[in-house]
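lol ok so funny story. i was supposed to be doing the assay writeup but got distracted and ended up predicting the structure for this chain instead. priorities right. anyway since i did it might as well share w the group, maybe its usefull for someone
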Amino acid sequence: MIQSVKVKNLSLSKDNVRKTNRETGLDSLAADIAAHGLLQNLVVTPLKRAGHFSVKAGGRRLRALQRLIEAGTLPVAHEVQVLVLDDDAVSTEASLAENFQRVPMNPADECTAFKHFIDKGADAEDVAKRFGVTTRFVEQRVRLAELAPCVFEALASGDITLGVAQAYAVTPDTERQARVFESMRNAYYGSNPDNIRRAILNGSVKATDAKARFIGRDAYLEAGGRVERDLFGSEADESWVDLDLIDDLTARKLEAAAAEIAKSQGLAFVTPVIGTSVPYDLERQLHQYHAPLRDLSEDEAVRVAALGDENDALVAQLDSELIDGSEEATAANDRIEAIERELDAIETDRSGVDPEVAAQLGTFIYIGHDGDVRVHSRLFSEQPIHGPSGTERLSDEGGGNGDDAVETGVRYSATLVDELAIQRRQILSAHLANDPTLALDLAIFLMANGVVYATSYVRSHTTLKAPEAAFPISTFRDADSPASAALDEQRQGLDMSWAGLPTLTARFDAFRMLDDQSRAAWLGYATAQTLEPTLNVNGGSRHNGFHDHLGRVLDIDVAKWWRPSAANFFGRVKKDVMLQALEDIGGPILRGRYKDAKKGELAAACASLCGGQGIVEVEIKEKAVAWLPDAMRFEAIELPDRLSSPAAFLDEDEDMSSAEGGEGDDDAADDVEDLEEAA
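and the output, tada:
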């Protein structure tokens, strides 16, 4: 039964199924009711007191009505239509059905609806007031409604998310939106908003870009490609503006290379990746395969032994009998090199993949920064490959809270802190991985420090591991940066010949046979991957002065590895931070030029300037291309740790003599006190 009831005679039932988020969006709902009235009846049951009812479904609408009455928007005696149900069980079921069956409005429908009002002559501010939202929200929805038809249809059908649609809306140029959409829709990272924004805003490719080098200038021009040349720069500064053509030529050439490699090596698949590295998540979808080393045949074993004896004899002759520079010595050295080549060939043949197994394997190819095709150093399978014993012949694979932090009075968001920390971590890791000597020192130090200040004992055969540090944002890998590319190249270059053997003993013995350089490269990479993301900020969980010290020891020039852009920095900070950056670069005059610019324009200007593309004086340009936020520099000083006393590690004789008050023990005690005081 439907009847009118005064709002003041309604109360919220404890049986209302919505228990959480009751206050979410209440102001917006109240504004909507004030503008359009109550469009959906409340569901109520009568109370013992005549004329009073308990609201079973519509609690948020009731609170919005009460708020409007308290604000004086509606009269105290305001009445609303309610559906009266006498059965409590039925009314509770109605409450659940009303909340459970509600389907959120499609964002595309929202956009169309808001644009309808704008097209009818209403302005964004009036529409915002009527629906209880901000003017900016209305403007954003109208901008989305004006997306290229192919992008808007993808949003309406659910093929892309609202965040992806917003990335396309960074420009009103619908032709560019459509062009980028067609090139990104089937790409592996085509659903990443940051990649879309970069593609939308860049609009051109430099002649030095990896894809440009890969397809070649002649092929691009022959296919009808257009070039925009910088009259004040070199030929390398020219821009190729037909992005669709570049992507098409790149894809076709890379696919042809993949087909040729798959055919020549007998692989099941070779997946082309249009990028300068293979994405981490793409590898994780497959199973790594390491070809086991087969045993030497009887003939091979005899030959290896004979070559070894001959090599030893020649070395002995060079050390004792032969004169350096003589024909005999030269011939001996040439023969030693030939022996090494033959031994390498036998070793390579031992690690060959059985053709039947190869027919189940595949790999990736991608484009190197020099424009050449790179073949991934590892093999993969879509399903686990089992050996004769039924055991998988695959290596085991392993895959902070971002508190707000402050840099010299500037507060960064937690997400920005984490992303910058990841990017700086990649730079530090790339340098550490390339310096095995320092990596060895670091590894030994960390082990020794763990012994002296151990606080717990883990029952295991070994506690020495080098697991890859977890990133605070699992979806942010910094995959396209120079540092990540360097790490990937270092990983590709590691000697994997030992990894496919079936037992730990066999793998260990084979690993010990690697040369010093190969083992040192493994040490550098394994140690580097343990580094957790840190940032030079005051406060927060990302601060670590010791990492800054490592950066200084490695003499890292961050500006050569990372440049602030609108996507990774300037578009993520406040306007004051950008203006201060301009003042650091060009003084108050440069800051004054942009003081009235909108945030988006200012971010783009700062990014262009720091990328070396701004038209400014030479001195300012030099400062701009070297400018960094302090957070990305390796300049923090480590604060003393509070460490437990190492007194427990004094030997027994020292402890006994100390207890007896022996001479010289005061020095040891003083040393311990000094350590405690320093800590």
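The longest strand covers residues 361-367. The radius of gyration is 34 Å.
back to the writeup now i swear
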